[in-house]
Amino acid sequence: xxxxxxxxxxxxxPVTIIxxxxxxxxxxxxxxxxxxxxxxxxxxxxxxxxxxxxxxHTALYIYEWPAEKDNNTGRVEQTHSCKVKGPxxxxxxxxxxxxxxxxxxCMKEAEMKVPGKRHHETPxxxxxxxxxRLLNMENGSASDQVFQAVEGALQKFPFSFQGARxxxxxxxxxFGWVTVNYxxxxxxxxxxxxxxxxxxGASTQISFVSSNYNGxxxxxxxxxxxxxxxxYNLYTHSFLCYGKDQAMKLMLAQQTKSGPxxxxxxxxxxxYNETKSYSDLYNSPCVSNRKPQGAPATFTHMGRxxxxxxxxxxxxxFDFTSCKYSQCSFNGVFQPLLQGPFGAFSAYYFVxxxxxxxxxxxxxxxxxxxxKDYCATPWKQVMAQHPDVKVNYLQEYCFGATYILTLLTxxxxxxxxxxxxxKFIKKIKGSDAGWTLGYMLNLTNMIPAExxxxxxxxxxxxxxxxxxxxxxxxxxxxxxxxxxxxxxxxHPRII
Length: 495
Ligand SMILES: Nc1ccn([C@@H]2O[C@H](COP(=O)(O)OP(=O)(O)OP(=O)(O)O)[C@@H](O)[C@H]2O)c(=O)n1
Ligand SMILES: [Ca+2]
Description:
Blueprint: H1 2-10, H2 13-38, E1 45-53, E2 58-66, E3 77-83, H3 96-113, E4 123-128, H4 130-138, H5 140-155, E5 160-166, H6 169-183, E6 195-199, E7 203-209, E8 222-227, E9 230-240, H7 244-255, E10 262-265, E11 273-277, H8 278-281, E12 298-303, H9 307-315, E13 342-346, H10 347-354, H11 364-376, H12 379-385, H13 391-394, H14 397-411, E14 422-424, E15 427-428, E16 431-432, H15 435-443, H16 459-480, H17 482-490
Parallel strand pairs: 1-4, 4-5, 6-13, 10-12, 13-14
Antiparallel strand pairs: 1-2, 2-3, 6-7, 7-9, 8-9, 11-12, 15-16
Helix pairs in contact: 2-16, 3-5, 4-5, 6-15, 9-14, 10-14, 11-14
């Protein structure tokens, strides 16, 4: 009995088995810890909300990105949008509280869409554009009251409200450019950038990088960025009063200079016939100083549907006479040589999409012919063919398309060749093209100036190396136990 116990004590096998088991457990633990420690956190998302208070309407956008990837490009996506019912907030100048009220429905929708536990940390921004710029010029206190009403309404929601303000035209242009290039993944990769063309209701923006522009000529058109380690010198200009709705007022002001009772407008379809009020037409600062003296209260707006004549009237809203720079677009505004591809969104897209003209490989002459035919179509026929399109939009597509073509070719100097560099777009990878995403990325510091450090090894490579090293160490350990095995073979087990 005592000899047997002695043999058992001298037998090293149980010890070896214990060592192997501990070793395997250690390897598994080591690899598990290493893998878990370096694994991306479980998919938690953060959110941001931007309200685009445009001249014609307000829209709410919700953006989402993985919580641990704040600094990476191409990861912020639009997950929801809500169109506010009614007109833009600047239209509530005489009833400011209604501007706040109007936002509530979309805000409630946002409350449902953003997970409750994220509400308090979700930044909420409201940016107003040309409609509020015009109201502010015309009546500063009315504009302040609209902002008070809007802020009061937004503060009642559980989000982290960051304020409501008017964007400058430069910001509007530059952030539209950031959005387009961020969504196209062009910034992080340092690729050639895409220019941005935004046509709103009250203003229009053009923004692009041109190698012959360093910002020294007309510095007020220059915006510089350092993004992901690359420097960008952006040319941008916003033309107030040259959005589609205000440009139409400019065009109608051309035709009502003498205060007539009736106009036969080439930019409206034959058979179109509406009574309009002079005070409504001349109610904006873009035209208010041109109101004809002694005009009647109303005029009869009749359509003639003639594209060439419409182009002639539209051309008159641009001033091509003076330029104190090396080159200009119009109204004496500097513009460097056009360069690279362009994305054209907002009303550019609405109008060209309606006319099936978003394909820019169609030659310009064919585009002109199509618009010419469309403008000449009798108004009755147009309405019958599009019963589901809002009449307010429908009546303006002839003018809209003529204006877009004139603005692009005569205003910005796109040619038959460079026209095909334009893409009419609404969304890029599911997110709307517009200034809101760029605005939020900027305010949340989500685009770093320098390229973010990337780990030297991908995650899978890292895991393989850790596992391999652990196994290697264990084998070395076993090899170092060889003397013990030898002793063990000299004392074979009895039982
Ligand atoms: N389905 C649609 C929607 C809008 N529009 C036109 O598009 C213009 C408004 O464009 P939008 O980009 O929404 O302008 P806002 O952002 O409201 O104006 P701004 O940027 O100037 O403040 C208006 O002329 C409107 O008639 C259109 O033709 N068809
Ligand atoms: Ca806009």
